[in-house]
Each structure stands twice: as structure tokens, then as C-alpha cells.
Amino acid sequence: MVTIHDVARYAGVSSMTVSRTINGTKYVRPDLREKVQATIKALNYTVNQSARNTRVGATGPRIGILYSNPSPSYLNEIMLGGLQQSSRSGCQLLLEECGGLASQKTALKKLLAAGVDGVILPPPLCDSRQTVNMLKAGGVMALALATARPMEEVSSVRIDDYQGALAMTRYIIKLGHKDIGFIKGDPAHTPADLRYVGFVAAMEEAGLKVDDSKVVPGMFTYRSGLLAGEALLKRPDPPTAIFASNDDMAAAVMAIAHGLGIKVPEQLTVCGFDDTPVASTIWPPLTTIHQPIVALGRTAVAIMTEQIKKARTGERPEAVHQLMKFTLVERASAAKAPA
Questions:
Q1: Which end of the chain is more exposed for a tag (fewer CB within 10 A), N or C?
Q2: The sheet that has 62-67: what strands, in order across it?
């Protein structure tokens, strides 16, 4: 990231002259002001509002949330927790959406210009080393939310996705199911991989063979769940149970089943992961792994706020890694395997 000292060096003036130009002070010669303004534009420099706030005594931490998540319900839960904690901690949250690398850089630039002290990265950006490095270059700390493989030097808040998938698969097997289909998640998101690994481990533990033809790709979106549901349920030998890597895809599978006249759970057990609001609003309600998403958002903001306060006193805060508990929620979408 370009600093005020870079602008001064390229313009051939002092940092004080650049500062005075930015602040609109009249004690700058017109020719120097013009030269500084041209350099600022050429270098694409933006004011680090966070540092400015610190200098003038502003104390409320400003925390950005940079998101690129296809599941609105998941993001809403994160935001709910974040807002709850922000009102308690006296901090301000700034939300920015991004897609590809170009829009990601633009979103980061907006957050930095707005003076954020730290940025929370929900999935899948929580696993992006490039995003973390961009924040570091801007002098801003990062926190990875719901990553499966936290970076040692970056704070994180998460659950154990492997154990969650292991528990759900064991539960399905305990119901007597042997022919189990699985819908993977976004391969760019580390929890997706661990949820599949947990599924395979539970199947092998029970002495059951994983049928690769009944393991289908998904992207954590409802639409990808529709495609996966069709692939599994329109085949001549559909599975008796389907474990989807998140609730949106599980809900889509149930929609396909209803359309095909397949009764859930009498003829087909469907289970999900996350326990987002859709899990308890569809019919029948979805058996799923409850990830405390609201609490994850609350905890992320609490950790980030504390680290910002430490940094402002001159401390070098160490990374905090918080592992939170999941629970298996039994609802009406799962039943014993048909005889």
C-alpha cells in the first residue's frame, strides 16, 4: 500500500508538505500543491483514516467484514452476531462485498480508506493468503472466520468440521443406512474438504464402501444442490440417505425429492450442515449439524476489538484461535433406512 512518505519521495517534497496538502492547509505554494495532488492521483494514494483517527484520539475500533459468500442466510447469521457484539464493545462495523481479485482489491481499498483497524474474513476469503497479505501490507490485522485450516499468525474462530461430518455420518449409519450419497461443498473453502474427509472416515470405520458415483460436486448454493439432487435421485439406484455439506444444498435435495414423489424421510433421509434458518423452516425440518454461527460472529468481533485495543497501546497482539462447539440437531428429515 502507498504511504504518505512514498508520495513525498515521488513528488520531491517533504512529508509535511504532503500532509498539509491533504488537509487543505493554505501554507503550501500553489505549484507544490499541484505537484503533490498529481502524485497522489498517479500513485492512487488514499488516506489511512485509521491512523488519522488514532492521532486525533478516536477510540472506537472500526472493523471491516469482507465477504464473498453465496449463502445469504449464513452471512445474515454472522452479521447478527457481529452487530450484537459491536453494540457491547463500542466498535463500528463496515461491510464490503467482493467477487474476483479485482473487486477484492477495490473492496479492500474502500475499507482501508474508511479507516478500519481490522478486517474479519468469512468463508471462503478466510482461506485466502493473498487477502491476508494485502491487509498486512496496509497495516491492518485480519481474522479468519470458519476456516478449517487456520494460519498460525492470523486469529481465527471456527468449529471442527471434520468431527461434525464424522458425527453426522455415524448418526445416519446408526439409522441403518448403508447406501449414502454425499454432496461436496465449494472446493475453494477448506471446511468443504474436511466435511468430505469426515464422511469418508465414518464410512470406512463402519466397514462401508463409499460409492464414488454417489459423491457429487456442489458449491454451497441452493442451485448447485438442485443439480446434485437430480444427479443422485434420478439414477436407477438412488441412495437411501443423502448428506449435503450445507443446509442450502440439503433443502434443494428435498425440493427435488418432493418433485419426484419421493417421501422424506420414509423413503429418503436428508441431512445438512450449519443449521442456518432454512433448516427449521422447510418441511420436514432438517436434521443438521448446528454450527453456532451467531456466536462465531460475536466472538470474532470480540477478539478483534480486544486485539485492536492492545495494538493501540503499543502491544503486539498474538493470534487467538478459538474452537467452538457444534451439536447434532435431530429433526424430521431423518429416519431409519427403509426395509
A1: C
A2: 92-97, 62-67, 118-121, 141-145, 155-158, 321-323
Q: What secondary structure does DSSP assign to 106-128, as a single string?
A: HHHHHHHHTT-SEEEE-TTGGG-
**Residue 187 in 3-state DSSP?**
coil
Give the integer Cα–Cα distance in Å for 113 and 299. Answer: 25
| Helix and strand numbers, DSSP H then E, in the chain | 13, 12
4-45 against 161-290: fold identical: no
The CATH superfamily assigned to 60-159+293-326 is Response regulator (3.40.50.2300)
The third-level CATH classification (topology) of the domain covering 4-45 is 434 Repressor (Amino-terminal Domain) (1.10.260)
- Average pLDDT (135-141) is 85
Q: Give residue-wise pLDDT tens across range 11-57.
A: 888 877 877 787 666 567 888 888 888 888 888 887 665 555 544 44
In whole angstroms, give the CA distance from residue 267 to residue 339.
10
Domain coordinates in residue numbering, the chain = 4-45, 60-159+293-326, 161-290
Task: For the domain made up of 161-290, give the CATH fold.
Answer: Rossmann fold (3.40.50)
Percent of the chain clearing pLDDT 90 (strictly above): 59
Question: Angle at Cα 159 formed by Cα 307 and Cα 70, nearest 5°?
Answer: 90
Rounded to whole angstroms, how far apart are CA atoms 329 and 286? Answer: 8
Report residue 70: phi and psi, to 5°: -75, -10
Euclidean distance between CA atoms 296 and 194, whole angstroms = 19
**Cα angle vertex 252, ends 218, 98, to 5°?**
55
Question: Rounded CA gap, 98 and 104, in Å?
Answer: 5
Instruction: Return d(Cα 48, Cα 116) in angstroms, integer.
Output: 9
